[in-house]
Structures are given as C-alpha cells and as structure tokens.
Amino acid sequence: MAVVASDSTNTNTNPSEPIRIACVGDSITEGIGVSNPIQNSYPAQLSQIFGDGTNVQNFGKKSATLIETGSYPYTNTTEFIASHDFNPHIVVIMLGTNDMKTQNLLEIDRYVSDYSKLIQGYKNLSTKPSIYICYPPPSYSNLAGISNTNIVNILLPKIQEVSAINNVPIIDIHTVLSHKPALFPRYHTPKQCRSKNHCRDGLYTDTISIFLSYPYHTHKPSCTSLFFAIRKKNLSTSQEVQILDSSICCASNPTSRSCS
C-alpha cells in the first residue's frame, strides 16, 4: 500500500527518501496497555503496513492533554520536541481524550485555539507536512470523568471546528470503535487479543492507513473506492468493512448518503 501526502505543499521531493510519518497523541497512540507496544501500537502496525518506503515514529505520551493549561500539556513533553525534530512529511494527531477529564473541562474553551496553534507549528516546519487530525475512540469506563457523552457532545464538535478553521481532514476513529466495549476491558486500553482485526489498535491502523493512501485535497476518496480498498485488507467480517467504509467516507465526504 502506498502512502500519499494530502497537501501539495508537502516538500518531500527526494524519491529515495522515506516518507516520515509522525504519530502524535496520548496513551492511545503510545500504546499503553497493549501487549508489546513496540510491535502492536498503531504506529508500529502502520510502519509494518507501509514498509520500507516510510519511517513511522510514535510520539505518543501517556496522560497528555491538547490544552496548554491542562493537567499534562503535550507541548511540555519531550515527545512534542522530538516530533518537530523528526521533520515529518505527514503528521497524524489524536489528542483530546485527557482534555475530557473533570479538571481539564474547566479549560475546554482553549481547545480550538490551542489545537490550531499546535497544527500551525507543524505546518511551519521546512517539510510543510500534511496534517491529519483524529476523532478519538469512545470511552466505556468514565475513568477520571472521561465520559463518552462528553466526547460526543463536547470534544467531537470542537475537533470539527479545528478541522474547518485549519483546513485539515478528520480521521474518524470514534465511529470505528463505537459499540465495541469488548475491546475496552479496562480503562482506555485493550488487553491482548487474538488477532489484529479484533484489536483496538488493529482497527486504528486499518482506518488510518487507508485514509493516508488517498490525497485528500486533490482527490477526496469516494465511498466506493474506499470500500474496495478496505475489502482488499481481508477484514474478518462484512460488518467491519461496513463500519470502516462508513466512518472514513463520512470523515472525508460528509454529504455522502452513507453518512445519513
């Protein structure tokens, strides 16, 4: 599977240079709770899918918030600095779950402006990277006050606003993992599971990898083309295909019939 940049300003002009993909986020990205995160976190699986033509790095940090005045701002972490030093061609950001903690909701009005600032910082890099932002997965535990109700009613609309302001596409991880509490046996991370296609991180990987394989701005992927691309991944059931197809199409093409 080939990976493409979503923005024509991306400056990866050297065909012999691997495309550098920075995965920015919290424990969900880092792979906390996953059996062997070095191999099974979604960035690690993404690297396996894209192969030698890419260099995928995991810059997730447990407990990180997007809000700069939150309980543990991502911008205060070494991973934030390292993700810039990496000089990526593509940045995938999934931050916001920890911003739904009770104490951080007091500062939630900063979310859109702080997210826009984060995005702009990456856009200013010399590589002019393509930026993708993600809806986070649902919450089934209400740990630290993180409820799925708040994710749906507060966080997702703010991410939509960030997308519109900054002209960046959304990858919908929330829909892919909705109605799947069995993949969330404790807190926000899954236990070891039988196969990748039945794991939370495996579904992250499938969704993100397919989305990155289409140039968003120059050719928005059609629901039909994505459907067949997903089917080629030999997912275990037609239900998984339908969920993935609907969620990605709706993220990139919200006027599609399948989004109603």
Q: What's the topology here?
A:
Elements: E1 19-25, H1 27-30, H2 37-40, H3 42-50, E2 54-60, H4 78-85, E3 90-94, H5 111-123, E4 130-135, H6 148-166, E5 170-172, H7 173-177, H8 200-212, H9 223-231, H10 238-252
Parallel strand pairs: 1-2, 1-3, 3-4, 4-5
Textual characterization of the structure:
This protein has 10 helices and 5 strands; from the N terminus they run E-H-H-H-E-H-E-H-E-H-E-H-H-H-H. The chain has about 260 residues and is α/β, with parallel strands linked by helices. It has one domain (about 20-255): 3-Layer(aba) Sandwich (Rossmann fold), CATH 3.40.50. Strands 2-1-3-4-5 form a 5-stranded parallel sheet, sandwiched between helices. It starts with 18 loop residues before the first strand and ends in an 8-residue tail after the last helix. Mean pLDDT is about 75; it is low at about 1-10, about 185-200 and about 215-260.
In short:
By secondary structure, this protein is an alpha/beta fold.
Largest sheet: 5 strands, parallel
Helix count equals 10
The rough form would be described as globular
Rg for CA atoms: 17 Å
Distance between the termini: 30 Å
List keywords for this structure.
alpha/beta; five-stranded parallel β-sheet; Rossmann fold; disordered C terminus; 260 residues
